[in-house]
Amino acid sequence: MADEMGSVATEAKDEPRTEFTYCCGAITEVLKFGACHLVPGHKVLFLIIPGNPGVVGFYRTFMQTLYNMFGSDHPVWAVSHAGHCVPPDTMDMVEDSTSAEEADVFGLNGQIEHKLVFLRKHVPRAVRLVLVGHSIGCYVILEMMKRDPELKVMKAVMLFPTIERMAQSPQGKVMTPVLCHMRYVAYLPLFFLSLLPEGLKTTLVKLVFRSIRYLDNTVVQPTVGLLSGDCAANAMYMAGQEMKTVLERDDKTIRQNLEKLVFYYGASDHWCPTQYHDDIKQDFPGADIRLCENGFRHAFVLDAGREVASMVAEWIQVAFRL
């Protein structure tokens, strides 16, 4: 159905609501548990800023658990990265290609501005925010807090944060040449994959995930969506910029917001090795900086969304008694 803003939404009874809208001229998917439209009377919003690919469907189990843990009292939303979703039939990837290109909306800086514009359009300034970032979403959150210090952020939870030295990380050393110099080589196989029937795409995705013992099956269809071609290309374009941009840790912004931040590092994370945890822990000894003791992978949504959400909920409940 279409709402009064011209976006497209899908929903079912007792199910979360999925909305597609244009933000900064690019297609954006928003997954919502709880209230779909906020008014000044709403006190708290949990907002998920995803990693890359910024596909909100990956976070469905995580969000459902978070929503339930607070007794369904507070809405939990996730906003996709611009262009990291398959548009419905009635919409295009971009509303205005000229303005989208000028703003470089699919690039890292454009994605940061995209989130700030989304908040200005859809969230009243009086609403307090609990921001939850994953991977590059943590970098996006730090930039949001830096660029708009008046945001009413209660807490910002940084899960497996890629906020520094991405190209120097073990995974970065492998991926940087691919993403920065050979990205276009990957477009041809992506194009051929996009032509496959949906059933075959689903089978291929399940084959790739077969080694994950406790796979969350809700991530399968969002992964199939990535094989549309354009979504994956936009994700790779953003990732290439990440390798070149995410260099030094923004200690000034961290210091200014230290009491609001919680950092959670993986114990075997090839994007943010434990040395990064040790360094930030040494530089900010009084901060809430944690190292995973549960064996969660960087892409925790694949098999541990429920467990990570329960953990995050406990941190917030202890801090604010929500």
Q: Structural class, judged by helices and strands?
A: alpha/beta
Outline the biggest β-sheet: 9 strands, mixed
Low-confidence parts, pLDDT < 50 over ≥5 residues?
Answer: 1-6
The number of helical elements comes to 12
Radius of gyration, in Å, reads 19 Å
Going across the biggest sheet, name each strand in turn. 1-2-3-5-4-6-7-8-9
Helix content: 40-55%
Strand content of the residues, in percent?
15-25%
Report, as a whole number of angstroms, the end-to-end distance: 33 Å
Anisotropy-based shape:
globular
Order of helices and strands: EEEEHEHHEHEHHHHHHEHEH
- Overall strand count: 9
Could you characterize the architecture of this molecule?
With 322 residues, the chain is an alpha/beta fold. The protein has twelve helices and nine strands. It has helices at residues 60-69, 97-103, 108-122, 136-147, 170-181, 187-194, 198-208, 220-226, 230-245, 251-256, 274-283, 305-320, and strands spanning 8-10, 17-23, 26-33, 44-49, 76-79, 128-134, 153-159, 261-265, 288-291. Strands 1-2-3-5-4-6-7-8-9 form a nine-stranded mixed beta sheet, sandwiched between helices. The chain is globular and about 50 Å long. The two termini are 33 Å apart. 43% of the residues are buried.
